[in-house]
Design goal:
With about 240 residues, this protein is α/β, with parallel strands linked by helices. Helices cover about 45% and strands about 15% of the residues. The chain has a seven-stranded mixed sheet with strand order 3-2-1-4-5-7-6, with helices on both faces. Helix 6 (about 120-130) links the parallel strand 2 (about 90-95) and strand 3 (about 135-140). The longest helix is centred in the first third of the chain and has 18 residues, at about 5-20.
Length: about 240
């Protein structure tokens, strides 16, 4: 892995600082997050903000599939409140809160991550309530394969401008692309967190298969200055 050595050094040094200065009160850390945030994480946030801003003039809602603890989900919702507070756009979250537990052949070595990325549904709802985002963030609890299709079939009016894909695996990526594609507006984007990432090959395989039959609809874009997200599919405008 390209950044393996620098990551190991950073995490080791970070742990040493935690031992040196002791535990801190949660909100004192949160309110000073630029002080504590790693550069890679900061770069990811800046990249996601920049991508979102390119879609603000595109009609349609926002969705994140695979939200883990909800950090990026709430980041998107807070950005929407800052940049477009008077629109009807909402942020839809599709998350099982059970972690990674079902793998296809295309996922290969990703099975070593079984059980990882479990979130807390209750904690996420508490944070949504804290920031009074109940009308802006809609959480659909359950596997993406089980929740997206029934929801969309019941909401025929919905279109989307920004869909963040962080499911890591082949089958949910394949299914969500098929389901959201008819709802993507011109200029809208699919943004992939694990595209071309060695330990999660299934997401890349699913994107490649999707593009083999939908290339006329989307252009591909590299995301500069960050490790992740690593690919944008932007719906063509003509």
């Amino acid at each position: 892995m390209k950044f393996e050595y620098s990551d190991e050094r950073y995490f080791a040094d970070r742990n040493k600082l935690s031992e040196k200065y002791g535990q801190r009160e949660l909100w004192s850390v949160a309110d000073h997050w630029p002080l504590y945030c790693g550069i890679a994480n900061l770069a990811r946030c800046v990249a996601i903000m920049d991508i979102l801003r390119t879609t603000l003039s595109v009609p349609g809602h926002i969705a994140e599939i695979g939200s883990w603890r909800g950090a990026n989900l709430l980041f998107l919702a807070k950005l929407l409140r800052i940049f477009d507070p008077h629109s009807l756009k909402q942020v839809h979250c599709f998350e099982s809160f059970e972690g990674l537990n079902e793998f296809a052949t295309q996922d290969a070595g990703a099975v070593s991550a079984a059980g990882r990325y479990k979130g807390s549904f209750e904690e996420l709802l508490d944070i949504i309530n804290l920031y009074e985002l109940q009308n802006e963030v809609i959480v659909h609890k359950g596997r993406a394969e089980d929740t997206i299709a029934p929801f969309l079939s019941g909401r025929t009016e919905l279109s989307f401008s920004f869909v963040y894909v962080d499911v890591d695996l082949y089958e949910p990526t394949k299914r969500l692309l098929a389901e959201f594609h008819p709802r993507m507006m011109p200029g809208s984007v699919f943004v992939f967190d694990e595209w071309n990432i060695e330990r999660f090959p299934g997401e890349t395989v699913a994107v490649r298969e999707f593009m083999s039959s939908h290339e006329e609809f989307y252009g591909t874009e590299h995301v500069p200055n960050t490790r992740q997200p690593s690919l944008i599919l932007r719906r063509k405008t003509c």
